[in-house]
Amino acid sequence: xxxxxxxxxxxxxxxxPRSGLAEIVRHVIRQPVGLVGVLLVVGFIVLAVxxxxxxxxxxLAQPSKRLQPPGGAHLLGTDEFGRDVLSRIIxxxxxxxxxxxxxxxxxxxxxxxxxxxxxxxxxxxxSLVGRVVDIMFAFPSVILIVAISGVLGPSMTTAMMAxxxxxxxxxxxxxxGPTLVVMQQQYVEGARAFGAGWVRIVAxxxxxxxxAPVIIQTTLSFSTAILSEATLSFLGLGTQPPDPSxxxxxxxxxxxxxxxxxxxxxxGLAIALAVLGLNLLGDxxxxxxxxxLRRGRT
Amino acid sequence: MGKYLLRRLILxxxxxxxxxxxxxxxxxxxxxxxxDVLIGTEISLGPEQRRALYRLFxxxxxxxxxxxxxxxxxxxxxxxxxxxxxxPMTRVLMQRLPITAELAVLSVCLSWLLAIPLGVLSAVxxxxxxxxxxxxxxxxxxxxxxxxLATMLLLVTSLYLDWQSALIWVSPFKDLWANLQQMLLxxxxxxxxxxxxxxxxxxxxxxxxLGQDYVRTARSKGLRERxxxxxxxxxxxxxxxxxxxxxxxxxxxxxxxxxxQIFGMPGIGWLILNGIYQRDxxxxxxxxxxxxxxxxxxNLLVDLIYAYLDPRIRYD
Lengths: 298, 316
Prior knowledge:
heterodimer; A: 298 residues; 13 helices; B: 316 residues; globular
């Protein structure tokens, strides 16, 4: 297919601004909501990546007296084993973001893949996937995640798997709709007539059209995945001690919180800030990527 | 409407079958040998006892037979027996249900009480001070984990206010005041997210309705603003809010697992979680099945209410 023919048959391509990504980034950080979101998310990513450089202590070492109040060498105090709370929170961001990336990745691959196949081929596959998705949606997600991790045995790996599986249906649903719409367009028919195979059709026509909703959903799922992991670990069904997960810290610190409130206050604050950042970023991305949904607020 | 209801009820059958199948598969996929996991390392079993246990769990049959047998039992109202107490799960669930139901209903009521007026007022006085404040409250509500909020509420009340409600569960029929005192913190922790979601939905839905022609017509007829807002705008704007509420029931049931655990309330969530801790799998199986069925039925009811409230929606 010649370049001209491709350009003619891709109506979206002509309208898309030349530097799409730069445009989106500009739109996101121009909104105060988006800017705060970006700063929080980037902040946590820096913490996660540079944890060994930033954190003042080894998160597993017990350098000081137990339950020492914040101040001095331990900015956020020490926990019930004398470990530095700040260092554990910094390393905890690694756990949270790792769980977020892997579990949302699993959901994106399984769910997105099924949605794509479903919307592309329709027929029996579509009805089958549709039924499975309906059934998965019939479970409250937290209950299903708790049940899966509980049954498979508590660990960070099973937590990631459970969260990934439970979040798959939403991606299947989000991908299927737009895929279906694109597949019925004349330009896809045209591309087929030119002999384009499914790889080309998916890469060239379907993916650009599902990118926006998928990006938005990925950001929002990332925040709920972090919350889910924290919930699981809080309940003792996720990341196991002594590994520093925010949920585990809060769960085990809870028993000592009347003596030492800081062991329960700060890990929770970290979860709330990370989730807030991702939610704000998700909202701003939605505004930037989908002008139809743009809200009145500026 | 009758035809629609019938169709929805028929469609419920494959979903419920699927739910039961999924729950069974989950239970069969226990790592290693379920029986070994169950008895732990303290007790040693003879082959005879081991076989009996296998039969008890239905593990001696292929999965499809197991499923059919289990389904037959479920249809006869037998959800299995707790391994620890041998109590029938049907009875246990019925004992625990009121606690979770009260928690859920009170949380929904509290969240509506706050979220609906706030959402409406934010939309009416858009970009005003109240709108800004409720926007912030909404964002915080969505971001603060319920278990942290619960922990913080416990911390503040016990440490700074020196207040603690009775530790043992009190039925509302026995002592309503004591019961409500116990419910206060759990309900607050659980309703924060609900409030944020409902408020945001109410605001955006109200904003959309306020831009409609019929609202302009109502205003130009010279109707009082209150009448326009309540009778014309609010009634229409409430419909999507109800749908969102249906989805939020899933959150409520999931949240109940965590909140009941923190406050030591022996409801359905507490039951499931302790079933997991104690490896009492029939309890987990029955609990998860029960919760999923409740969720599906509630969402069906929400759809019906939706159809009733909006005469434009005709499902037939």
